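Ticket #4471: complex job returned nothing on first submit. Input attached below:
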Amino acid sequence: MAYEVTNVDKGVPIKSWTLGVPFEDQARQQLRNIASLPFIHKWVAAMPDVHLGKGATIGSVIPTLGAVIPAAVGVDIGCGMMAVKTDLTARDLPDNLAPMRSAIEAAVPHGRSATRSKRDKGAWGELPDTVANAWNRELAERFNRLTDKHGVLKNTNNVNHLGTLGTGNHFIEVCLDENQAVWIMLHSGSRGVGNRIGSHFIELAKKDMQRWFINLPDKDLAYLAEGSDNFNDYIEAVGWAQDYARINRQLMMEKTLAAVAGVLGRPVLGQLQAVNCHHNYVSREHHYGEDVLLTRKGAVSAKEGELGIIPGSMGARSFIVRGLGNAESFCTCSHGAGRVMSRTEAKKRVSVAEHAEATRDVECRKDAAVVDETPSAYKNIESVMAAQDDLVEVIHTLKQVVCVKG
Ligand SMILES: Nc1nc2c(ncn2[C@@H]2O[C@H](COP(=O)(O)O)[C@@H](O)[C@H]2O)c(=O)[nH]1
Ligand SMILES: [Mn+2]
Ligand SMILES: [Mn+2]
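Support reply: We reran it on our side without changes. The output follows.
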């Protein structure tokens, strides 16, 4: 048995794939809070990258019946990863990768829009046909329906933000796999509009709890009950934001491939193998005899044969994995290494020189502003992978040579 079972006395059990990896007491308590809710189906699963989150634990899988917890899905709805294998190999890359990093940074708006208002215009209006068609036909109409009922969602930056990376932990990388093939991998979500949707429904859920005099172990576990208007609207909104996030990643991938092609002066084919997976989301799935709402908060679907992406850190290896369909994890794996240190702690404990040393073989930022993202702020990805070898098998191992941080 590759997992530990705890919380057998109260609520549902917690099954944790955390053998050999750090697992903080605060995260364990947060999981117990979730497990005490009356609408959890079977158990809560914790992945090896588990760590404290807001309301619900990052790296957790929460199957619910008749309710959904908006804060468990989080505010970066649909955050996830996309990776494509290109037709390039290491030999096609120049020795000096600085111009490639600059070209990607110029092609994909990143960082805070407030300080980069001129650049952070998004890619709206110049969408590739496939993406533009998906938006025109579906997303606009669905979004208008949402704003008709929830006016607060109207003035979001969704137009400007489509095709932009975001801040901090979001990144774009050029990587080499075990055969020296070049991959492009990126991490981003639903940007400002997803944040507005998430925050709005978290507040509505809290109001519902007050109205119904429901006491919770943590107010961020406020839920929406199936059948209510808010529940129906949330399901519609969260699905919309998940689709937006997926298209956002596709768009940035196309921009990045074009930027790399521009630097190399040759076309780059990025369709050899492609994976685009959410790691903060909710979906309707069937597990242990019930149709549940399955919330993966910092976790990736790993149904049998399904491909996923598990990134390490800006100085460590990342993995393209194939799901083994382990039912006890609700067919899930980790979404990364997971933080082992808060951002504040990382900034206190790690110097810029240490960060530069930890990323010496990567063309990336080495300044004080990215030290909170330094490799030692994350768990050891090799131990995290070992702890979930019954959930996924590794099909490609990637190591970045360029990393653009948000
Ligand atoms: N390959 C890289 N992996 C990274 C980088 N920064 C963070 N990470 C990993 O991604 C997950 C994403 O977690 P999230 O909760 O922020 O969505 C994180 O756990 C790390 O393992 C990077 O620059 N490159
Ligand atoms: Mn995100
Ligand atoms: Mn993420």
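Residues 4-340+378-405 form a domain with the tRNA-splicing ligase RtcB fold (CATH 3.90.1860.10). Closing as resolved unless it happens again.
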